[in-house]
Inverse folding.
């Protein structure tokens, strides 16, 4: 399905590795609009919303940051580490949002399962329903979020 | 239906917009119609660009046909030659837009070259030949077809924006529901049939 | 015969149309020579119309800040344009406030030069130069931090204030097809003429840091621009508190060494925070400074030392360590450089002790 020129420009920006090292689309050959619609459907099937997922990620982000680089225990169930770097990454959706460079890693103490995400991921999920393309280094699988963080 | 030369240009104009709408009655130019109609402003911009290209190219093609193609007996080449004219016109219009209306040029971006392969533009040039229109009739026909296409895509975009937040059955989102809406709009336009006939 | 006729007619008509398109291109896309007037006649330059304002200025050695190279994604390249350049483009809209639009502020990477222009830019931008620099030495400081020593080739000198930063341009590599610009603080001192040292920490998935860590070697040439930034020493205090974490040590190193070199009468305390010992670097360098200069004190702190570190120094979050040692707010200034989280937390501690906001200076690149 064809997409508007603006979305097309955003898509090309995401692919070319000009904003983040390996791009936001990974090995996904689908159009951006198809990726967005597929993930939209996926999230609805899981019985949740982009907002709920983003809020939960934001919670771990806020708690993790309190550790200033050190691991923090959250809800007596998770170990959260937030690694920060100077600078910011502008959101590829051209909405004038620049996310800080913070990588959050959440590990379930009992199962050992881990989920990593960045501050930019949270914004893109919350504002655009974008989880990155399949094969992208920082793709967030909605199902994985539901399994580990909820 | 009277002889082609006898149909009044205004009748042709109105018919091209309503009863013989390029996209809703003839189902030509569906590609960008389905894909660019999700945002009203972009759709309207594209509609204007398509109208302009339709008007300009039909007139150019009329002159090409009656002064070059027909006299030289090259009717079998009309498809190729019309397309070449359309491609060149779109190029020039794109450059002119960039210079004089940069906002629209940025908004339409890659879609401008894609107008070249919009089959409705080739379609109206061919209709113009089949129905043997005079120059004046061609002007109104090109204008009317463009306005009709613009009207149709604006209407579709408006409907799509209205239902944008509604929940749809999985699988019908995007192209699915768009085709259904287009079909219903076409049904509605059938109501115009019989009022003015040019085909 | 028909074949010849076909081929001939198609070719002739297509060529004729091609000629028409070329003529139209010459006419429509040729904007002639345009004069750009900067800051009311302060500087004037003549450029060929058709290019963007950002690139035309850069070609004339005036470097407007940009991180995305003209893709309308970073919003940094704002310039105040006094002439009429048409309506605000959809690509510019998200990055300009209503006030900015009213003042004529635009994204210079989106403005195409079509006629003479009058623009206004901050005076500081005239001091920014672009350099070709050769990598003299690469030193591993920790598992993810390297120091790069650049020898400036053309031009050969960069005048800067300790604390300021430069922008470097990465080159395409692997699947990365574009060049990007990123900012790094200078860790060397101004008296080290002709050289610039940068401390670069590898950011996961970071384009420029990956480039510098994995795709350059000594002898390579890099393009550098600067100096930028308003993080530098201010007058007005005799007691200075420096706080840094990670690669934030760079500007602090420049500041501390320059102050000692100049013999300024300041008492300095430098807090460096890390999690474990493997994140520390330049420990001996600063311990040595501490021994030689009675007015300099070095306090490294680990928030979670590993048992094998056998750490004897301060333990705890940097905020707690700062609170422990900084007692009075009198006659003090604080200079912070590190991650936004660390900076915010430390600002809270410092203002809690009694420092006012205009006595705390920090370096945030965003």
């Amino acid at each position: 399905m064809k997409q508007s020129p603006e979305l097309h420009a955003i898509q090309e920006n995401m692919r070319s590795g000009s904003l983040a090292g390996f791009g936001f689309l990974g090995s996904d050959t689908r159009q951006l609009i198809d990726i967005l619609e597929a993930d939209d459907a996926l999230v609805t099937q899981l019985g949740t919303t982009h907002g709920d997922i983003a809020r939960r990620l934001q919670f771990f982000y806020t708690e993790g940051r309190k550790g200033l680089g050190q691991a923090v225990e959250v809800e007596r169930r998770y170990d959260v580490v937030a690694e920060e770097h100077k600078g910011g990454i502008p959101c590829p959706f051209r909405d004038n949002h620049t996310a800080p460079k913070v990588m959050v890693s959440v590990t379930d103490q009992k199962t050992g399962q881990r989920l990593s995400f960045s501050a930019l991921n949270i914004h893109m999920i919350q504002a655009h329903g974008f989880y990155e393309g399949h094969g992208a280094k920082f793709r967030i699988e909605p199902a994985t979020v539901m399994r580990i963080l909820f | 239906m009277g002889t082609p030369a006898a149909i009044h240009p205004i009748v042709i104009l109105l018919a091209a917009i309503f009863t013989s709408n390029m996209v809703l009655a003839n189902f030509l130019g569906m590609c960008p119609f389905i894909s660019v109609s999700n945002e009203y402003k972009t759709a309207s911009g594209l509609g204007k660009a398509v109208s302009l290209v339709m008007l300009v190219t039909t007139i150019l093609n009329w002159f090409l046909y009656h002064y070059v193609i027909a006299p030289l007996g090259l009717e079998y080449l009309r498809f190729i030659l019309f397309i070449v004219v359309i491609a060149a016109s779109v190029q020039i219009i794109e450059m002119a837009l960039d210079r004089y209306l940069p906002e629209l040029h940025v908004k339409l971006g890659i879609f401008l070259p894609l107008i070249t392969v919009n089959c409705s533009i080739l379609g109206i040039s061919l209709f113009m030949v089949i129905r043997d229109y005079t120059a004046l009739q061609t002007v109104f026909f090109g204008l009317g077809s463009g306005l009709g296409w613009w009207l149709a895509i604006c209407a579709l975009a408006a409907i799509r924006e209205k239902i944008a937040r509604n929940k749809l059955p999985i699988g019908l989102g995007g192209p699915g529901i768009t085709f259904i809406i287009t079909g219903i709009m076409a049904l509605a336009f059938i109501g115009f049939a019989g009022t003015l006939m040019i085909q | 015969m028909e074949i010849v006729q076909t081929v001939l007619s198609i070719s002739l008509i297509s060529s004729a149309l091609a000629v028409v398109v070329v003529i139209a291109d010459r006419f429509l896309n040729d904007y002639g020579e345009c004069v750009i007037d900067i800051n009311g006649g302060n500087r004037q330059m003549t450029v060929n119309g058709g290019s963007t304002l950002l690139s035309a200025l850069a070609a004339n050695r005036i470097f407007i800040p940009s991180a995305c190279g003209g893709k309308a994604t970073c919003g940094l390249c704002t310039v105040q344009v006094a002439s009429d350049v048409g309506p605000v483009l959809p690509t510019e809209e998200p990055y300009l406030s209503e006030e900015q639009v009213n003042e004529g502020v635009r994204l210079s990477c989106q403005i195409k030069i079509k006629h003479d222009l009058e623009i206004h830019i901050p005076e500081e931008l005239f001091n920014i130069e672009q350099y070709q620099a050769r990598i003299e030495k690469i030193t591993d400081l920790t598992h993810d931090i390297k120091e790069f020593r650049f020898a400036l080739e053309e031009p050969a000198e960069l005048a800067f204030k300790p604390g300021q930063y430069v922008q470097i341009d990465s080159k395409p590599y692997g699947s990365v097809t574009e060049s990007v610009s990123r900012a790094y603080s200078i860790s060397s001192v101004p008296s080290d003429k002709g050289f610039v040292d940068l401390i670069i920490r590898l950011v996961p998935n970071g384009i420029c840091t990956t480039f510098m860590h994995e795709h350059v070697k000594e002898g390579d040439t890099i393009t550098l621009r600067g100096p930028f930034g308003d993080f530098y020493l201010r007058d007005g205090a005799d007691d200075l508190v420096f706080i840094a974490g990670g690669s934030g040590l760079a500007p602090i190193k420049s500041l501390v060494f320059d102050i000692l070199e100049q013999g300024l009468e300041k008492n300095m305390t430098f807090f460096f925070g890390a999690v474990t010992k493997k994140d520390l670097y330049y420990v001996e360098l600063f311990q040595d400074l501490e021994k030689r200069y009675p007015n300099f004190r070095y306090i490294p702190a680990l928030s979670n030392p590993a048992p094998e570190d056998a750490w004897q120094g301060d333990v705890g979050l940097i905020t707690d360590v700062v609170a422990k040692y900084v007692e009075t707010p009198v006659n003090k200034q604080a200079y912070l450089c590190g991650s936004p989280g660390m900076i915010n937390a430390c600002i809270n501690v410092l203002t809690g002790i009694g420092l006012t906001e205009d006595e705390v200076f920090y370096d945030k690149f965003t």
